[in-house]
């Protein structure tokens, strides 16, 4: 029950609706029992008397009980569902409040498809907590106890049989099947997450799979995942059917023994035959309510797993730092930075140290997988170093809130998202206050003056080329206008002439700003104040372009290879 603690307290926040649902559910159950009991009594009375007045009154009572059962059942549904939907609203709000501070680092721990499955599917699963787990045993238990109390006025042994059956169906059977499900670990939630993640990857990579003729293989893997999900659902269904069958059997046996004991007492004269049919029908009516308890173990386990999966997403403590980055250009210091991605045995960065003066232009170079982008993530506080420290000016990055850090930076990443809308709406993400002239000027600076501000942008910028996306991202950075620039391969899809032109414009317009640029391209580095060379997560060289070339070390070798390839 520990996993469901949050859901339990959110449900109890709607205590008025929950209490009304229980009360009306209890009244609906009693009305159903009374309807069947009155029917049995009417049958017996009609066989033994010819008084029409008594029969008319009894028939009217049947209609009254039927009407009461319908009204109270409607009220029970109304209040229970209103409490459930309100609880789900609070749950979603609370979940996203805990999730938002963890972004974007959350994507390092969870695949997007699995994350979506948890946010949507697992939250939806918790709608059954109140409706199928929490209050059904309370209502059924109250109805059965009331039935026991009523039956005891006519026959104590018959009342004890009903009580034994009540204990069995309300306590023993649900506990048994819950334990049975826990041992079998039908992880439908996990397989649903796997299927969602595999489906998302299949859709994202469909074009590449088609090009490399690997579509059939990936499709077969997806079908296998779907089969496991389907099998898990089938197993859950079979288990629920078993529980329903056993519950129905116990209810039948309880009513059968009530009939048998009642017939015996009638035969020895200890019970009037007039009440036998009534008591049997009362027993049947009481146990008619136990049907929902058969599915209680399934819904309990589903809710428990869903709550656990949601907690796994937001179990990391949010960054509650309140520090801000100093305004203006600042020097950047890194002291023995080390970092390892979750579930990865190798170090992505290994004791990297450097100092970048304010107003300097620094390039970070190295082969793929050397740790360049990881270093940028640490500078952005998207990831937190396992060891070491980063300082901006005299302030430690660990004491700054991530959003306060991003607020002071102009950031261009390798992959930048573009929303369905227009060029203008995508530019205004960086600066809502910019006027049309400023927007057009930003486009001119990145050589996109041919694009109209009203030009449409499709989802993920599908109608833009790779180079246009990168230059549009750089236009955003121009519009933001901060003094610290962090650029990760900003022009990898742009031709060299255009990239060099934009860099020239950038450095000319912002001579006092601090630049940190990650690049695979070693051309044009003569204009940089400092070059950091990474390999296998270690900083193996640093210095000016001239110093590194004269040293004839690793960077010199990379430069010579590039010249041989492209000359």
How would you describe this structure to a colleague?
This protein has 567 residues and is α/β, with parallel strands linked by helices. The protein folds into two domains: 2-313, ABC transporter type 1, transmembrane domain (ABC transporter transmembrane region fold), CATH 1.20.1560.10; 332-566, P-loop containing nucleotide triphosphate hydrolases (Rossmann fold, 3-Layer(aba) Sandwich). It has 21 helices and twelve strands. The chain has helices spanning 5-12, 15-48, 52-99, 112-125, 128-134, 136-152, 156-184, 188-204, 206-211, 215-267, 276-287, 291-294, 296-313, 372-379, 402-407, 423-427, 436-445, 466-480, 496-509, 545-551, 554-566; strands spanning 332-339, 349-356, 361-365, 387-392, 395-396, 409-412, 421-422, 456-457, 484-488, 514-518, 530-535, 538-543. The strands form three sheets. The protein has a six-stranded mixed sheet with strand order 6-9-10-3-11-12, sandwiched between helices. The chain has a four-stranded antiparallel sheet with strand order 2-1-4-5, with helices on one face. β4 and β5 (395-396) form a beta hairpin. α2 (15-48) packs antiparallel against α3. It is elongated and about 115 Å long. The mean pLDDT is 83.
């Amino acid at each position: 029950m520990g996993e469901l603690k949050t859901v339990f307290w959110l449900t109890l926040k709607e205590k008025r609706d929950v209490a009304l649902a229980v009360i009306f559910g209890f009244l609906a159950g009693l009305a159903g029992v009374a309807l069947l009991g009155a029917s049995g009594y009417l049958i017996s009375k009609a066989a033994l008397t010819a008084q029409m007045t008594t029969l008319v009154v009894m028939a009217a009572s049947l209609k009254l009980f039927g009407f009461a059962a319908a009204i109270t059942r409607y009220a029970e549904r109304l209040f229970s569902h209103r409490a459930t939907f309100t609880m789900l609203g609070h749950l979603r709000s609370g979940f996203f409040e805990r999730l938002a501070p963890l972004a974007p680092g959350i994507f390092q721990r969870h695949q997007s498809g699995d994350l979506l499955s948890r946010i949507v599917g697992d939250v939806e699963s918790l709608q059954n907590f109140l409706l199928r787990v929490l209050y059904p045993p309370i209502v059924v238990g109250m109805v059965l106890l009331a039935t026991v109390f009523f039956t005891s006025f006519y026959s104590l042994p018959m009342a004890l049989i009903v009580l034994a059956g009540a204990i069995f169906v309300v306590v023993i059977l649900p506990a048994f099947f819950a334990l049975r499900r826990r041992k079998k670990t039908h992880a439908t939630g996990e397989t649903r997450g796997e299927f969602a993640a595999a489906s998302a990857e299949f859709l994202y990579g469909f074009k590449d799979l088609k090009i490399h003729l690997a579509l059939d293989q990936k499709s077969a893997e997806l079908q296998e995942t779907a089969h496991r999900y389907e099998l898990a659902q089938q197993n859950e269904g079979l288990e629920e059917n078993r529980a329903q069958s056993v519950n129905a059997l116990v209810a039948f046996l309880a009513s059968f023994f009530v009939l048998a004991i009642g017939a015996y007492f009638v035969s020895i004269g200890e019970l009037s035959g007039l009440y036998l049919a009534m008591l049997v029908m009362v027993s049947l009516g009481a146990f008619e309510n136990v049907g929902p308890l058969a599915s209680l173990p399934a819904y309990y386990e589903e809710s428990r797993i869903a709550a656990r999966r949601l907690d796994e997403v937001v179990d990391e403590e949010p960054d509650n730092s309140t520090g801000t980055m100093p305004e203006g250009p600042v020097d950047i210091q890194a002291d023995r930075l080390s970092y390892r991605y979750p579930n990865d045995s190798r170090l992505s960065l290994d004791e990297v140290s450097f100092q970048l003066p304010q107003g300097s232009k620094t390039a970070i170079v190295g082969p793929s997988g050397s740790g360049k982008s990881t270093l940028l993530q640490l500078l952005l506080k998207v990831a937190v170093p396992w060891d070491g420290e980063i300082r901006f000016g005299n302030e430690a990055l660990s004491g700054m809130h991530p959003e306060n850090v991003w607020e002071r930076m102009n950031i261009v990443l390798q992959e930048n998202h573009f929303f369905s809308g227009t060029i203008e709406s995508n530019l205004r993400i960086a600066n809502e206050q910019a006027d049309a002239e400023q927007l057009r000027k930003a486009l001119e600076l990145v050589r996109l003056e041919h694009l109209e501000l009203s030009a449409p942008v499709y989802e993920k910028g599908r109608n833009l080329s790779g180079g246009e996306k990168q230059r549009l991202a750089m236009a955003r950075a121009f519009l933001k206008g901060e003094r610290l620039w962090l650029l990760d391969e900003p022009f990898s899809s742009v031709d060299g002439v255009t990239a060099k032109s934009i860099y020239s414009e950038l450095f000319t317009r912002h001579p006092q700003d601090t630049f940190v640029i990650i690049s695979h391209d070693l051309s044009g580095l003569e204009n940089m104040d400092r070059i950091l060379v990474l390999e296998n997560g270690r900083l193996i060289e640093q210095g000016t372009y001239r110093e590194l070339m004269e040293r004839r070390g690793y960077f010199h070798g990379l430069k010579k290879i590039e010249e041989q390839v492209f000359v």
